[in-house]
Structures are given as C-alpha cells and as structure tokens.
Design brief:
- This protein has 493 residues and is an all-alpha fold.
- It is built from 19 helices and no strands.
- It has one domain: Growth Hormone, Chain: A.
- α2 runs antiparallel to α9.
- The C terminus is likely disordered.
Length: 493
C-alpha cells in the first residue's frame, strides 16, 4: 500500500514558523537575482567581458537550475524534503562563497553553475513543504501570498544591498550576503522543520535528465552566441538542431517510462499547463527587463550601482505589496483576476518602455518600473497555486518543481533573447545605440504580457477546474501501480 509520509499536524504558530524558514530560501534566491543584475556592469568592466559574457554570468546559473529543478522536486518527494532542502542550502552557500573568490570570468561562470545545483533544491522543495504544511486551501493561498511577498521584499532589498556593496567593496561582496542567511536557514531547518516524503517511489530518469540539459544548454548557447557567430553559421544551426532533436526525443521517451522525470499527464490539466506557460512567458519578460534596465541605468545614464539600485526600489516595493493581495484574492475568487492584472501590467510596462531614451525624465523611468512591477507582483502566487491546486499531495514536489522550472526557463530565455537583441542591433558604443537597439526587446516584453493575459482567460474558470480534477484522478490511479519505498525504516524516518 502506498502511504504518504506527510508533515504531522502542527499548531498555527508552528506552521507559520515553517513558512518563515522556507521563505529564507526564497529570500536568498530572490536577492541573488537582483544583486547579480546590479553587479553585472561592474563584473563586465573588471573582466573586460563582452555582452555574451555578461549573459553567461546569469544564464549559466539559470540553465543548471532549470535542468535540475524537476529532479530535485521528485527526489525530495522520495528521500525526504527536509533532507534535500538542507543539502540545497549547504551547496548554495558554498557556491556563493566560491563565486566571491572567482579569479576569472570563466571561473565565475563555473561557480555560478555550482551555486545553481544547490538552488535547484530550494524553492520547489520549500514549496512542497509549505503545501503539505498548509492543507486548508484558503490558508494555503494566503501562505503562498506571503511566499510571493518575500520574493518582492528580496527584490526590494537586492538592488539597494547590491548597489551599496558594489560601490563600497566591489562586485564580489554581492555573494557574501548569502552566506550568513544560508547558514541560519540550515540550522533553523534542522531544529523546526519536520521531515516529510511522498509514499510513492519514483526511480530516477537519467536519460530524460540528460535530454533536458542538452535541450536547454544548446538552445541557450545558440541564442546567446548567435549575434557573434551569425544566425546562419554552422555552429549556431547545429546547436538549434541538437536542441530540437533532444526535445523531440524527450517527448517521445517520457510517456514510455512508468516513472518519468516529467509526467506529461500533468499537462492535461488546463490550469497546470497555463501555469507552466505563464511562468515561462512572464519570467522571460522579467529576466529580460532586469538585464536591460541595469545596463541602461549604469552604462547609458551613468548612474552609480547604488543609485541604479534605488531606481528599481519602487518596482520591487510594488511587487512586495501586490503579492499578498494576490494571495487574498485567490483565496476568495480564484486565480483569474490576479492573472488578468498581471498580464495587463506586464504589457503596459513593456509598452511604456518602448519610448525610453537616454534623456527620458526620471519620473517616467520610475513609472515604467512601477507599472511593470504591478504585473510581476500579481504573477507568482497564481502560477504556484494553479500548479499545485487539484494535484495529489504526493506529487506536490514534482508539480512545484515543474512550475519553478518554467520560471527559470523563462528567466534564462529572457536574458538570452534580450541580450541577443541588444548585441544584434547595437552598432557602436552602448550608450549611443542602446535606445534603438533595445526597442524590439521592449516590444517582446509587451507581447509577453498579452500572452499572459490570453492564458488567464483560457486556462481558468469552470472548464479549467474540471480538467484539473480529471487529471488528479488519472495521476492518482496511475500512482497506485508504482511501488512504495521498500524499507519500512524509510517510512518511519
């Protein structure tokens, strides 16, 4: 019999303590996003890196973390969520220390990949712990809202802390801040977070894992290096061809496994499919925006890192305030309204950014960030809610892992695409040609907002709930044929 090992019934105070500890992982990961973006221009100057080198500083992390998130989620469901969570915190902390000591751009990119191995074990596993801690749907939606607001808070503090550190001690300091938070989270997890795991035993899928990594790495390489080598060059065409073959093989391989890395049955749920596509689209806009706006503020407008960070503060504060509002609306009305607000905000922000020039008034730049921040602030809570809502609790880690993978894939595509748009259209110095070179990128962000809006209308509502219920029933029946953990002692852990 498949018996799920779940968190014991906890008091309200203990549940929110678990939530706070899990949010620490989101805080350092979210902080890392904006801190590294603020530091990118300084890294480029220190290592004399081209635009593609700056893209890899961000995307090396994103490729690895996107490749491993699903594996981390399913592994945590199998061997223990707290155990995997603690390992992830340790690896992320060690990786951050190594990044701060990197002697070259190549070494920094490599250490960012190590950091990502740990990062892949954090957010999806923490979300699985939260999902199994908050079992009442309304309370769970509010907890997810708090989760989203922590991301907004980390976004708000990231530019300020990052700017201050780059100005005072240099870009290496932006990695130091992860170390004490990571150590504290490891200790608190050991003391207060009980162990949990799913009752089904899903064996690893190494071939599927390799195919995912090949797909993401080759496509990302092709997008980033395309402007330098030429889009029609043999190297770039080969990258895209290999990526397409790997993806096709993955889609052929997964349904033929009893225990796949990615259970394609999940995508029969309209809300789940919408959550995955929304995560890719919305975070593509976000990753691209951060990459371009930090270059604009520092290299075009000439602001110091701290000043550039302060420009992002209003956007981050709006995100922090919007996320809990989204959680409350979801608890009462569902996810459609937050997703409509999100899509409209992203599209409007992108449209405003198409008018950006080197002499745009400060108030207009801030307005662009605020409007875009509204869209992003209402985005994450409904993505997570739609990903796990209606799914069996035994699959919470996998479902959350797929949603998080969508976010990371979107972010890496955003950096890769926007950087390539900039490199392909830039003729001469960055400060002189930035405005015209990036206008197509802002239009892409506008289009991403429209897609989020369309997905909101199509995937939510009664038809969506019915498809989620049918999918959950299908997955539950299929899981009855998967063997439970063989050792009784593993159940008692």
């Amino acid at each position: 019999m498949n018996e799920e090992i779940v968190l014991p019934e906890l008091s309200r105070r203990r549940r929110y303590l678990v939530l706070a500890i899990c949010c620490l992982s989101l805080f350092i990961v979210g902080l890392d996003v904006t801190i590294i973006n603020v530091a990118v221009p300084a890294i480029g100057r220190d290592f004399h890196a081209p635009v593609s080198g700056l893209q890899w500083t961000i995307d090396a992390y994103l490729v690895v973390i996107a490749s491993l998130l699903m594996l981390s989620g399913s592994t945590a469901d199998r061997v223990g969520r707290r155990r995997v969570f603690q390992i992830g915190l340790a690896v992320f902390t060690v990786g951050s220390l190594a990044c701060s000591l990197a002697p070259s751009l190549g070494a920094l990119i490599g250490f960012r990949a190590l950091q990502a191995v740990g990062g892949s074990m954090l957010n999806p596993v923490a979300m699985a712990i939260i999902t199994n801690t908050f079992t009442e749907p309304g309370e769970r939606a509010k907890a997810i809202g708090v989760w989203g607001s922590v991301f907004g808070l980390s976004m708000a503090l990231g530019p300020i802390i990052g700017g201050a550190l780059v100005d005072s001690v240099g870009w290496r300091g932006v990695f130091w801040v992860n170390i004490p938070i990571g150590v504290a989270a490891i200790i608190l997890t050991a003391l207060f977070v009980p162990e949990s795991r799913a009752g089904t035993y899903r064996r690893p899928d190494p071939f599927g894992q390799i195919l995912v990594m090949i797909t993401l790495s080759t496509v990302t390489y092709g997008i980033i290096e395309g402007p330098d080598y030429g889009w029609a060059s043999a190297r770039i065409l080969a990258c895209f061809a290999v990526g397409a073959v790997a993806l096709a093989t993955f889609l052929w391989h997964e349904p033929r496994r009893d225990e796949p890395l990615l259970d394609l049955r999940f995508f029969r749920s309209r809300p789940f499919s919408g959550a995955a596509l929304t995560a890719v689209t919305g975070l593509c806009a976000f990753g691209g925006f951060l990459f371009l706006i930090t270059l604009y503020l520092q290299d075009v407008r000439g602001y110091r890192p701290l000043t550039a960070g302060l420009f992002l503060l209003p956007m981050a504060l709006v995100m922090a305030c919007s996320a809990p509002l989204a959680g409350r609306v979801i608890a009462r009305r569902g996810t459609r309204i937050p997703l409509i607000i999100s899509g409209a905000g992203i599209a409007a922000g992108g449209l405003l950014l198409t008018f950006l020039t080197a002499t745009t008034p400060v108030w207009y730049v801030l307005l662009c960030g605020v409007v875009f921040g509204v869209g992003q602030g209402w985005l994450n809570a409904p993505i997570t809610n739609n990903a796990v809502a209606g799914m069996p609790r035994s699959q919470a880690g996998v479902a959350a892992g797929i949603a998080s993978t969508g976010r990371q894939v979107g972010s890496l595509l955003g950096v890769a695409v926007m950087g390539s748009v900039l490199a392909a259209n830039l003729h001469g110095p960055l400060a002189a040609g930035f405005t015209s070179a990036t206008r197509p990128g802002w239009w892409i962000i506008t289009g991403a907002g429209v897609v989020v809006l369309a997905l909101a209308l199509y995937t939510t509502g009664r038809a969506g709930r019915d498809s989620a219920a049918r999918t959950a029933s299908l997955i539950t029946r299929g899981d009855e044929h998967i063997p439970a953990p063989q050792a009784a002692g593993a159940r008692a852990a």
